[in-house]
Design a protein that fits this description.
heterodimer; A: 81 residues; mainly alpha; 2 domains; 2 helices; 58% helix; B: 592 residues; two-stranded antiparallel ribbon; 3 strands
C-alpha cells in the first residue's frame, strides 16, 4: 500500500493545486483575524509575510537563473583540463 | 565527587581502535554497541565536572562538562548511534574506523577546556574526516579529500598561530570567552571560521561532502561544522562581525542550491545556510539568540543527517544522485520519501517540526535587537531554504519527471535510522520544552504564539506557491548536467597558475640567476681561495685544503638540493617550523 500512488493519477496535479490554493486562501483570511504582536510596524500589514515569501522566492529563482547561472555554469569536466 | 562516567571521546577512541581488528558481523555489532554505550554514558555526565591535569608545564583540561558542552556532547552521541545504524550494511571497516574516530574527535573538541586539547582534537578531526572523504569511492573522492585537507591544515595553522600568540600574551591556554580584541583572537577566529564555513572560505564543504560514500556524507554533515559552531559560541559570543558573516552565509548558498544538479551538493549548500543562522545567533550574543544557536545546532544535526540519509539511500539504491537522472522514485521508495519529507519540513521550519522551534529563536532575537537588515535577510533565507531543500530535494528526487528507475526500497537498518531521526525531528517540534530545558540559559520564549505560527505558515505557503507557479510556467531553471563554479575557482586556478609560474619562472630563475650568482659569489671564491692556499703551501697542508674545498663543494651541492621548488616540501617545512616554534615557546614558558 503506497499512498503516493495518488500522484500517478492523471488529475493528481489538479487536485494538488486545488488543495494548495484553498489552503492559501484560508491562511489569508486567518491573517486578518488573528491578532498580531510585532517588533516592526510593517509586520502588521495584511499578509506581509505572504507577500514577502512570494517575492523572495521569485527574486531568488530569477536571480539564480539569469544572473548566477550564466556566470558560474561550466561543463562537468571543467577542472580536469 | 565520585565519577560514574567515562570521558565520551575515550569510548569512541577505544571503539575505533578495536574496529581496526574486527571484521564481519562482529564489527557490525561493535559499531552499534560503541555509540550505544556512549549515549548511556552521556546521560550520566555530571554538569559542572572539570578534570585538570598538569602536563609539561601546562594546565590541561581534557574534560569540562557544562551546560554548553553538554548539549553538543549529547547530540553528538545520539547522531553517532544513528550513523552506525545507518551504516550497518557497509562492509568497509575503514569507514567504521574513520567514523568512530571522527565522532571521538568531535566529542573531544566540545569537552576540551583548554586550547591544547582543543587543537589536538581539531587536527585529528580534519585528518579523520578527510580520510572519510578519500575512501568515498567516487571519481573525485581522492582529489576532493586532498583539497579538503589542504584547507583544514591551513585553518589549523591559523588556529595554532593564534593559540601560541594568545598563550604568549596571557600565559593561559584556558579555552573560555575570548572576544575579538587582538591579532591572537583574530587568528583563532579565522581558524574556527574555516571549519564554520565562513563566506569565501566555505568552498571545501560543497566541494568535498558530495564526494564521500552514501554513509560517509551523513557522518561528515554532523561534526566538523557543529564543533566549530560550538567553539565560536564558547569563545566569541556577541562578536558583531559574526552577524555579518552569518547573514551572508544564510543568503548566498541558496542561489547556488537553486541551480545545482547534484542533490547532495544542494544539501551541502543548505548546510552552509543553516550554519549561517547559528553563526548569526552567536554574533547577536543575547541569551535568546545563544539559546537559539544551540537549539538550532541540536535540531539541525538531526534533520540534516536525515536529509543526507534519504539522499544517501537514493544514491545507494539507484547509483545516481543528479537531479537530471532522478525522478519518479515515489513509486518504489515510499518510506525513504516520507522520512525525506519530514527532514525537508524540519529544515524549512514548518510548525510542529524541530526547525520551527529552534530557528525562530534566532530570527526573533535579531528583531529584539533591532537588527532590521539581518531580520529581513534571515526571513529571505528561511523562504529560500524551504524553496531548495524543502521542495526541491523531495520533488526532483521522488516526483518531477519519471526517470524510469524502479529501485528497491532502502534496507531496513537505513529506514530504521531515518525513522528514528524523523521521529526526533517531530518530537522536538511537538514538545520543544524537553530541548529547551537543557539549553545553556533559561528559556522564556514561546514558539507557538498564534501570530508567530501564522508568520511562518504564510512565508512558507506562499514560497510554495511561487515554486508551483514558476514550475508550471516553465520559468523555473531546468536542471542541467553542469558544474557551477564557486569561490574555490580562485584557489584552484590560482594554485594552477602558481604552479605554472613556479615551474616556468621560478625554477628557471633559480637555475639561471640564483645558481649562477651562488657559484660566482660563494663557490668560485672558495675554490679560488683553496687554490690560493694550495699555491701558498702545496707541501704542508696540501691534502687538508684540497679535502676541505671538496667538502665545501659537496655541502654546497647538498644545500642546493634543499631548494626543490616543490610546494608540498615548502608546506611541510613551514608546518614543521611552526611545530618547532611551538615546542620552543612551550619549553621556555612552561619549563619541564
Amino acid at each position: 500500500m503506497n499512498p503516493y500512488k495518488f500522484f500517478e493519477k492523471p488529475n493528481s496535479l489538479k487536485i494538488t493545486l486545488i488543495v494548495l490554493f484553498t489552503f492559501l486562501a484560508i491562511v489569508t483570511v486567518l491573517d486578518l483575524v488573528i491578532p498580531k504582536e510585532a517588533e516592526y510596524g510593517f509586520e502588521k500589514f495584511p499578509s506581509f509575510f505572504s507577500v514577502y515569501g512570494f517575492v523572495a522566492c521569485v527574486v531568488l529563482v530569477l536571480a539564480a537563473k539569469y544572473i548566477l547561472r550564466p556566470i558560474v555554469k561550466r561543463k562537468e569536466d571543467y577542472y580536469d583540463n | 565527587m565520585t565519577i560514574s562516567f567515562m570521558p565520551p571521546f575515550l569510548i569512541f577512541l577505544i571503539g575505533a581502535f578495536f574496529a581496526l581488528f574486527l571484521r564481519g558481523k562482529v564489527l557490525k555489532w561493535w559499531i552499534i554497541i560503541v555509540p550505544a554505550v556512549a549515549l548511556v554514558n552521556a546521560f550520566l555526565l555530571q554538569k559542572g565536572f572539570v578534570y585538570n591535569v598538569h602536563f609539561i608545564g601546562l594546565d590541561l583540561v581534557p574534560l569540562r562538562i557544562d551546560a554548553l558542552s553538554y548539549v553538543f556532547g549529547l547530540i553528538f552521541c545520539i547522531i553517532s548511534l544513528l550513523n552506525s545504524i545507518y551504516a550497518y550494511g557497509l562492509d568497509d571497516y575503514r569507514h567504521h574506523v574513520a567514523a568512530l574516530l571522527t565522532e571521538a574527535t568531535a566529542l573531544g573538541i566540545v569537552f576540551a577546556g583548554d586550547y591544547f586539547s582543543l587543537f589536538l582534537f581539531w587536527e585529528l578531526e580534519a585528518l579523520s574526516t578527510s580520510y572519510l572523504i578519500a575512501i568515498g569511492g567516487r571519481k573525485e573522492s581522492a582529489k576532493a579529500s586532498f583539497r579538503y585537507l589542504l584547507m583544514h591544515v591551513t585553518g589549523g595553522v591559523f588556529l595554532l598561530g593564534g593559540i601560541l600568540l594568545h598563550f604568549y600574551q596571557t600565559g593561559s591556554i584556558a579555552f573560555n570567552y575570548l572576544g575579538l580584541t587582538d591579532l591572537a583572537s583574530l587568528l583563532i577566529l579565522i581558524g574556527f571560521g574555516i571549519n564554520a564555513v565562513f563566506p569565501l572560505i566555505h568552498t571545501w564543504l560543497p566541494d568535498a561532502y558530495p564526494e564521500a560514500s552514501y554513509a560517509g556524507t551523513v557522518v561528515l554533515s554532523a561534526f566538523t561544522t557543529k564543533s566549530a559552531v560550538y567553539a565560536l559560541a564558547r569563545a566569541f559570543p556577541g562578536t558583531e562581525i559574526l552577524i555579518v558573516a552569518g547573514v551572508i552565509m544564510t543568503a548566498f548558498p541558496i542561489f547556488f542550491a537553486v541551480i545545482e544538479n547534484d542533490m547532495r551538493k544542494v544539501l551541502s549548500y543548505s548546510l552552509i545556510n543553516q550554519v549561517g543562522f547559528m553563526v548569526t545567533g552567536i554574533g547577536i550574543g543575547t541569551e535568546l539568540s545563544l539559546n537559539g544557536t544551540v537549539a538550532h545546532a541540536f535540531a539541525h544535526i538531526l534533520y540534516k543527517a536525515l536529509l543526507f540519509m534519504s539522499m544517501g539511500a537514493v544514491l545507494k539504491q539507484t547509483g545516481k544522485i543528479r537531479a537530471t537522472e532522478l525522478g519518479g522514485l515515489f513509486r518504489t521508495m515510499p518510506w525513504t520519501l516520507t522520512f525525506c519529507i519530514v527532514g525537508a519540513a524540519s529544515i524549512s521550519g514548518v510548525p510542529l517540526t524541530s526547525g520551527f522551534v529552534s530557528k525562530s529563536m534566532i530570527v526573533a532575537a535579531s528583531a529584539h535587537q533591532g537588527l532590521t537588515i539581518a531580520w529581513f535577510m534571515l526571513l529571505f533565507a528561511s523562504a529560500g531554504v524551504f524553496h531548495h531543500s524543502g521542495i526541491k530535494i523531495p520533488f526532483f528526487a521522488f516526483f518531477s519527471h519519471d526517470s524510469g528507475l524502479r529501485p528497491k526500497e532502502a534496507p531496513f537498518h537505513m529506514l530504521l535510522a531515518m525513522g528514528i531521526a524523523a521521529f526526533l525531528c517531530i518530537a522536538i517540534g511537538v514538545y520543544p520544552w524537553a530541548l529547551y530545558s537543557i539549553l545553556p540559559y533559561p528559556v522564556h520564549y514561546i514558539p507557538y504564539a498564534p501570530n508567530h505560527v501564522m508568520e511562518m505558515v504564510e512565508l512558507l505557503g506562499f514560497s510554495a506557491l511561487a515554486f508551483t507557479l514558476l514550475m508550471l510556467s516553465g520559468i523555473y531553471p531546468p536542471e542541467m548536467r553542469a558544474i557551477n563554479l564557486d569561490f574555490d575557482w580562485f584557489y584552484r586556478r590560482g594554485l594552477q597558475l602558481f604552479m605554472y609560474i613556479d615551474r616556468k619562472v621560478l625554477v628557471e630563475f633559480e637555475d639561471k640567476v640564483v645558481n649562477t650568482a651562488y657559484e660566482w659569489l660563494f663557490l668560485n671564491p672558495l675554490m679560488a681561495f683553496a687554490k690560493f692556499l694550495k699555491g701558498v703551501d702545496t707541501y704542508v697542508i696540501d691534502g687538508t685544503v684540497n679535502g676541505s674545498a671538496k667538502a665545501t663543494y659537496s655541502v654546497s651541492k647538498s644545500i642546493r638540493k634543499l631548494q626543490t621548488g616543490n610546494l608540498q616540501d615548502y608546506m611541510i617545512l613551514f608546518i614543521i617550523g611552526i611545530l618547532i616554534l611551538a615546542c620552543v615557546i612551550i619549553l621556555l614558558r612552561g619549563g619541564i
